Amino acid sequence: MTDDKYLRQAKFLYLCLAGVFISLIVTCNLIFLKFFELELVDGFTMVLSVGLIPYPITFLVTDLISEIYGRSKANQVVVVGLICSVLVMGITIVTDLIPARPESPVNDGTYSLVFGLTAASVSASMIAYLLAQFIDIKIFHWLKEMTKGKKLWLRNNLSTIPSQLVDSFAVITLLCSFGAIAWAEFPITVFSLFVFKMLVALADTPFFYLFSYLIKRHFKLGDLDELKI
Known about the structure:
The protein is mainly alpha-helical. The chain has one domain. The chain has helices at residues 3-31, 55-69, 71-96, 108-115, 119-146, 152-177, 186-203, 205-219, and strands spanning 35-41, 44-49. It has a two-stranded antiparallel ribbon. A hairpin with a 2-residue loop joins strand 1 and strand 2. It is globular and about 60 Å long. The two termini are 17 Å apart.
């Protein structure tokens, strides 16, 4: 296979991973107003937003980008994800202000209920998102250098755990400060968020191994090698 073909494939893969990441981040913010109950053990039920379901997967994607393309490319995707999220939120806010015609299948009240996101919720989500993703990427690469590219499971999980804790703590602190959530609910809400995110993050470890192996094998990368695009 020629170098040009490898380069085209590397660029296309990066574009696909970035697209998946941005899609997940935007989706999280669009669907977070729907809540469900999850009973882990008898007597302990967590109330969670459906927006949390795709969110931990974003850390799998940034870890893959970090592993294959390096820290700079991972940081780029995080910043672009923030820009896209703000753009989508801005569009939903503007369209929420446009009156619906009487015959519209979705009336103003329904549209506002689903897409009328509060500034507090969006701001809290975006600030926590930036903190968590940058921490995850920084720790991931520090561990990669420390282990000389070995022990994928270690850097995948040890970078995600503290970043998810920071994310849960930051977003709930901000929402409580803005009055969106009562301070009395702070401990259980942070705990519920963190536990759920950790369960999903641990579950994605085999997928991180699989995708890393397949990509590195295809591009003939060593443990510390990265694709330059």
